[in-house]
User: Fold these one by one.
Assistant:
Number 1:
Amino acid sequence: MADKIKTVVVLIQENRSFDHMLGWMKSLNPEIDGVTGAEVNHAVAGDASSPAVHFGNASQYVDPDPGHSFMAIYEQVYGDPYTWGSTAPATKPGVPVPPMSGFAQQAEKEKPGMSATVMNGFRPDAVPVYRELVAEFAVCDRWFASVPTSTQPNRMFVHSATSHGLVGNDKNKLTAGMPQRTIFDALHDAGHSFGIYYQFPPAVLLYRNMRQLKYIGKFHAYDLDFKRHCREGKLPNYVVIEQRYLDLKLLPGNDDHPSHDVSRGQRLVKEVYEALRSSPQWSETLFVITYDEHGGFFDHVPTPVDGVPSPDGIASDAPVGFAFDRLGVRVPALLVSPWIEPGTVLHRPSGPEPTSQYEHSSIPATVKKIFGLKEFLTARDAWAGTFESVLTRATPRTDCPETLPEPVPLRATEAEEHRGISDFQAELVQLAAALNGDHATEDYETDRLVEGMTVAKASEYCTSAFDRFREVCQRCQECAMDGSYVPELPPPTPSAPSSSKLCGCFPCFRA
C-alpha cells in the first residue's frame, strides 16, 4: 500500500449515528445498508401495542443533545434500563443480537418529545457534501464506535486502540494524561511523520505522551498552516484535523455535536477535501471521515457483541466493570482517495478474524499496514478490520471533483455562546487546567472550575492555557531539555514569572 498512499488524513466528527447522517443515502444507492422508513421503535421497548415511532427524514437543526452515556446506550440497544451501581453484567447475557429497540424509550426519559429527534435522519440534499462523497468515493456501512459510551473513550481508540479502561469522564486520569502508547508514537519511532492541525486546543493532548517536548512541533494551527502545507506538498504521513468543539458567534462549532449546525461540519469537510484535492500530494492521499460515537441517535444495525476482544485486559472501574467485549453503535464512515472507484460501498471486513468488524481501531490497524509498522498497539487493532482493500484501482483517478457542493445553513439563529458547556466541553476544560497548571492548586476542584462556565468563557480559558503550554514547551526546548520531558506548569499567579521568563523544567521553576 505504501506505493499508493503516503498520507492518511483523519477527521473525527461528533455524536451522530450512521442512519441519522447517511441512512437515507440508500435512496441514491440501494447497496447501502441504510433506511427505508419502515424502521421503528416503540414508546415502550418490546411492547408492540405502545405507540410506534417510525424513522423519518426530517432532521435539520438538533437541540438539545440526546443521551449517550454508557447507561443510556445500554437501554438504547437492549431496550432495558441499566442502573448505575447495578450488579447486572455490562453486556447482557443471552442476547447475541441486540434488538436496537430502546432509542425512543430512552430519549423520552431525557426530554418529552425527544423520541422524534433521535428517530429522524437527514435527507441527502440536507448534507450535500456527504451526498457527493458517497457518490464519488466510498462509504462504509459497517463501522462501529469502539465502545458503547461517550466521546473521550471512543476518541482514545482512534489513535491508540484502547481507552485504558475509560468508559466515562475520569477527572484524575484525564488530568494526568492517558498513559497508553499511540499510533503517533509508533509512527515517530519508525521514522514517519505526523501532524495535528487544530482549530481549537487539541484533544489528543489527553494522551500524556503527546505532551512530550519532542512532539510540540507537530501541532499546527489549522487556519495558518493546513492549506499552505497542502499547497506546498508538505503534509506529513499521518494528519489529524481537530475542529472547533465550541460554538461561538464569530467561530461557530464545526464538529457536528448537537447543538451545533451540521452545515458547519459540512463546510469543514468541503474545505479539507478541496485543499487535499488541489495538493500535489492528492494522488498519494487517503482521507478518512468518521464519528466518535452515535450521540443517542437511532441506528437499525445491531451493535456487535460476538468475539469482540478486550484491547489490553483492563476492565473499567467499579461499579460497571465493563470488559470491553462489545462495540458501540454504528457511525458514519467515508473513505476518500483517487484510488477508490466512484460509488463504492464497504461492508463487513473479511478478517483478520471471523468476528472482525470495522471500528475506530481499524484506523491504527490500517495505518500500520500502509506504513509497514512492526507491532499492533493492542489486541483490538490486531482484531479490527483494515480498509486498504477499498483502494482497488491500478492507477489514481483524474476525474475526482475539484470542488464539493456549498452547504446550506440549517440553523436560523446565531451561536449561543453564553449557554453552559457540555460534558465533553468540560473535559476539554479539565485538559486545559492540566496544561495550565491550575490543577496543582490546593483548592482546585474540577466541578468548581466548570460550574457556571459558558461556552465563550471555556473557549477563552482553553485557548489561553494551550498558548501558555506551548510557550513553556518552547522555552524548555531552548534549555535543551530531553525530548521525552513533559512540562508540568505551576499555576499562573500575578506574582509568578510569566511563561516568557521561565520554562517548564524543574530548574527554571526552582529559580
Number 2:
Amino acid sequence: MKKYDKVAERSASKSYMRMVDKSYLGSSDEVSKLLERVEVTFIKHFSNSNRSKGMNILRPKRKRETHRITFSMGFLFGCTVALIVALILIVRARKILDKQGRVIYMETMFPLYSLFGFIVLHIIMYAANVYFWRRYRVNYSFIFGFKEGTELGYREVLLLGFSLSVLALASVLANLDMEMDPITADYKPITKLLPLGLVLLVIVIMLCPFNILYRSSRHFLLVTLPDFFLADQLTSQVQALRSLEFYICYYGWGDYKHRQSNCKSSDVFNTFSFIIAGVPYVWRLLQCLRRLYDERDPHQGYNGVKYLATILAVCARTAYTLNERVTWKIIAWTTSIIATILSTYWDIVEDWGLLQRKSKNRWLRDKLLVPHRSVYFVAIILNVFLRLAWIQTDEDHRFLTT
C-alpha cells in the first residue's frame, strides 16, 4: 500500500486498512477455512494424498535448534558470570581502586572495553525481541527481509552475545593481570593493545568470506539490512560509536604508549564528537523528510521534529562536556527535557498506539498482541524511566569522551 500511495501520489493506505480491519473479511474465520481447503486440495492432487509431504511443501518447518546450541549458550553464560565474579574479586582483593594511577587507567580502559558492553547488551535485547516475536507469531523474518530459513533464533543470538562477553571479560582480566604482574610490568604498552586486538578479531569474523559462523546473517547485517532498522539501531548505539572514535584517537595517535589520553585536547576529536553524536539522528530525520515528501504524511514531519529536538539535545550536551559553563548546562538540560518528552510521547502514543481512552482495552489499544494487559503498562513505565535516565547520562558522556 505504501508503494501504491507513492506511485499514485495518494494517501489511501490508512483508510483502506481501517476498512479492512472493520470488514467481515478482517474479523471472520473464512480465510482460515479457505486455507484448510487449499491445503486439502493441494495434498490430494500434488502430493498423492501424502499429507506430511504436502505440508512440508506448503509450510516449510523451521530450522530445528540443536542441543549443541543450547549447551554452548548455557556454558558461555556460565563463563560470563564466572568471569564477572572473578573480576570483582580481583579488584577487591588487590585493592586496585585504591592504588595510584587508577583514575588514568579507568579513563582509558573503561571507554575501550565499554564498547563490548554496549554491543553485548544490544545483542541480548535483540535476542529477547526474537523470543517474543516467535512466541507471539510475529513474522519478523518477512518484515526485515531475511531469507527463509536463515534467520537466527534467540538461542543462537544469545550464543553470539555470550561469546563476545567471554572474550571481552577474559581480555579485561588478562589486562589487569599483566598490569599487576611485575614480570610483565615493562610491557604495559603491549597490554594496552588487547582491546584493539579484540576489535580487530570481531571485524575479521564479520568480514570472513567462508561459510562459517552464520555467514548469511553476517552478510545480511553488512549488506542488506533495511536502512530504517539500521538507523534505529544506531540511534541506540551512540555511546558505542563514541567508543569507536576513542579507539581511533587512542591508538591512531599513539596515546596508548604513554598510558594516557590527550583526545579531549584535540580539535579534530572534539569536532567528530559532535558529528558522531548527531549522525544517527540526522539519518532518521532525513528518512522522515523523505517519507514526508513521498507520502505527504504529516506524521512523518512530526516524527522529524522529534529527531530534530534530539539532535539539538545531543549537540548541546556534547558542547557542555567540552565547555562546562552554566549557559551550556542550562541549554543542555532544556533541550534534553524537550527531546525526552517528545520521544516518550511518540513511543507510547504514536509507535505503540497506546493511551487510547475509547479503546475496549482502556488506556491501551483495541488489538493487543500480548494477551496480558499488564505487560503494556509495565512497558510504558519502563519507557518513561529509561527516557528520564537518558537525561542523567551527562556524567557518563563526559567520562567516555575524556
